[in-house]
Amino acid sequence: MTKRPAPASHAAPLRQPTLRQLRGFKEVARHASFSRAAEALALSQPALSAAIRELETLMGVALFERSTHHVRLTPAGQAARAQIEWLLNSYTQGAEDLQRLLDTQAATVRIGCIPSTMHLLAPVVAQWRLRHPEITLILSDHLNDELMAALGNGELDIGLGLDFGLTPGLAAAFVAEDDLVAVLAADHRLARRQAVTWQDLKAEPLAVLSRGSTYEMIVATLRQLGADLAATDTLNYTDTLYSLVRAGLRVGLISRLYTQGQRQDGLSILPLQRPQLTRRICLMTRAPEQQARAAVRLCHAELAEQLRGRAALLASAQA
């Protein structure tokens, strides 16, 4: 009958020397004196002596020969000196690398926006980078629900989007109001009007962007009018919408911000009234009492002011 081997015993993990003990060893070896080493380390001499005794007990060897006239390394201490200094230098270098990493992270601000606001945000960010080259800005675009979720879970530091009720813990700075408009071909029968109503468009073939809160606002209004939603194209991209409008195949319903970043030749962009649907565009971040990083606070405050100015300038240009 084969005898099973006895199970291996699980040895207790070895104790590790502390930084205090290793630094004490280094200074005593360098100064060949406990008193001068204690002074260099800003320790009392009894505290340093205790640390060296603990290190020797841990290592199981005497590291120093002591007498009333001298302190010198034992052969074991001499053999350990280079390794201990390497350990200390590696720790110092690693701590410096960690601090650089944290400093870089602290100077990185992640900004998200809904797609219709990127043309509003991008020029302001470009100017901000010139004023603050030490801070890295990372930009991304999101649907509004995704934007709010990313702000809430910390994936984003700042978001430019729609204020439909803030998640607890977030704060918003108002930037602009964005209303829905009708986009028609320049030769459309309604194109020369100053504005159109939803009732005017009830029988028109329409095109809307298929995702996000704006789509939900448009669909709810069309349902209230009794419009035929089956005749409304839902599209993924603005380029598709504008192409259909220019060809006279559809009337586009879209937020005004989407029109400000597009060439408008062959198009007529009219206010959409009765009812006028408006969205509040806000720059959002964590509430001040929860926001620890100075770079984020600075960026949010300056961008909010610059965005308000740019939004007002664009609105006056289109008036």
Topology:
Blueprint: H1 19-31, H2 34-41, H3 45-59, E1 64-66, E2 71-73, H4 75-106, E3 108-113, H5 118-131, E4 136-141, H6 144-153, E5 158-162, E6 170-185, E7 196-197, E8 206-209, H7 213-225, E9 232-235, H8 238-246, E10 251-255, H9 256-260, E11 267-273, E12 278-286, H10 294-318
Parallel strand pairs: 3-4, 3-5, 7-11, 8-9, 8-10
Antiparallel strand pairs: 1-2, 5-12, 6-10, 6-11, 6-12
GO cellular component, one term: cytosol
InterPro entries: HTH-type_LysR_regulators, LysR_HTH_N, LysR_subst-bd, WH-like_DNA-bd_sf, WH_DNA-bd_sf
Keywords: DNA-binding, Transcription, Transcription regulation
Overall description:
It is a single chain. The protein has 319 residues and is an alpha/beta fold. The protein has two domains: 19-82, Arc Repressor Mutant, subunit A; 106-318, D-Maltodextrin-Binding Protein, domain 2 (3-Layer(aba) Sandwich). Helices cover 45% and strands 22% of the residues. The chain is built from ten helices and twelve strands. The protein has helices spanning 19-31, 34-41, 45-59, 75-106, 118-131, 144-153, 213-225, 238-246, 256-260, 294-318, and strands at 64-66, 71-73, 108-113, 136-141, 158-162, 170-185, 196-197, 206-209, 232-235, 251-255, 267-273, 278-286. β3, α5 (118-131) and β4 (136-141) form a beta-alpha-beta unit. α1 packs across α3. The radius of gyration is 34 Å and the shape is rod-shaped. Mean pLDDT is 86; it is low at 1-5. Keywords: DNA-binding, Transcription, Transcription regulation. GO terms for molecular function: DNA binding; DNA-binding transcription factor activity. It comes from Achromobacter anxifer.
